[in-house]
Design brief:
about 300 residues, alpha+beta, 7-stranded mixed sheet, 4-stranded antiparallel sheet, 17 strands, globular
Length: about 300
């Protein structure tokens, strides 16, 4: 009897310690961030960039940054003369992620001269420290082709009628969902790109160390559910976001409805972010990669 009580007590202590550790890894942060943009940057794009930078700043304030340094030495001989080039490169990354926005961002905008417009945003949200046990994902957005070198969209700028593809590879088997959202302006909504429209409610199954070229019928000819995607732009320029959501454990996609105009299922933006926040809170191994893309009239 005593042994049983002791075992239960230890299990309870372990559970409480784990809960406390998880709470320590998460914080609620508020941040105010200001950036100036030239006139050739649209308000949508400026606000999208500013919002992302504000979230990065909040995470950095909570958990700090990590700096990675690398050295490169190039040597050669030209015309009988030897040369050498030594270069040190450094990159800085925050040690966590923004997992949930609380309330609505507050925006202000003002001219500061020199043909610049200052945008300021105040946001509040929940941030979480890195989970060092997650897999290193390889995600590329591709434009008008599936060659990962030639067709990689380095500036994340697309034009109407462009073909859109997404390359994905993971060292760990798991499950994947992809959404595209319109976060600013009128008609804010989320569209489900993966699982494909004809598939079940579960996320798309991923096999470890396999190359995936989503939305390409040529590269995914064994999958009958594949749909092709073309970019579209309602105005002169649209700024959207692409969310790539991966977890090693199975999960169910967000509840959505069919859209006859696009042939893609959709849901409201608040419902999407509510679903995504719940996923990230419940599963610390969920990884989210988001890309702010600009679509211009072709």
């Amino acid at each position: 009897m005593n042994r049983t009580i002791t075992t239960l007590l230890l299990a309870t202590i372990a559970t409480l310690a784990t809960t406390a550790q998880n709470k320590k890894r998460e914080q609620v942060r508020s941040v105010t961030y200001t950036m100036a943009f030239p006139d050739d940057v649209s308000p949508q794009r400026a606000m999208s960039i500013l919002l992302e930078q504000a979230q990065i700043e909040a995470v950095a304030q909570a958990f700090g940054t990590v700096v990675t340094m690398s050295t490169e030495l190039t040597e050669g001989n030209v015309g009988g003369k030897s040369y050498g080039d030594f270069c040190v490169k450094s990159t800085s990354d925050v040690r966590g992620e923004w997992i949930e926005t609380i309330g609505k961002p507050e925006w202000t905008r003002a001219r500061n001269g020199n043909r610049l417009t200052e945008y300021t945003v105040r946001i509040k949200g929940r941030v979480r420290e890195w989970n060092t046990e997650t897999a290193e994902l390889d995600v590329l957005l591709l434009r008008n082709g599936v060659d990962t070198l030639l067709n990689k969209s380095r500036d994340l700028i697309f034009y109407s009628k462009d073909d859109f593809y997404l390359y994905f590879r993971s060292p760990q088997s798991g499950f994947l969902a992809i959404y595209a959202t319109k976060e600013l302006g009128e008609g804010r909504m989320a569209q489900r790109l993966l699982p494909y429209p004809g598939q079940t409610s579960e996320a798309y199954t991923i096999q470890a160390d396999r190359d995936y070229y989503f939305f390409s019928k040529e590269k995914s000819w064994l999958d009958r559910n594949v749909v092709s995607l073309k970019m579209d732009c309602e105005g002169d320029e649209d700024v959207n976001k692409v969310y790539v959501i991966f977890s090693p454990t199975p999960f169910i996609k967000a509840a959505d409805a069919a859209n006859d105009l696009t042939n893609l299922n959709h849901l409201s933006l608040p419902d999407f972010h509510r679903w995504l926040s719940n996923r990230r809170r419940k599963d610390p191994y969920t990884q989210v990669r988001s890309f702010a893309i600009t679509i211009k009239k072709g």
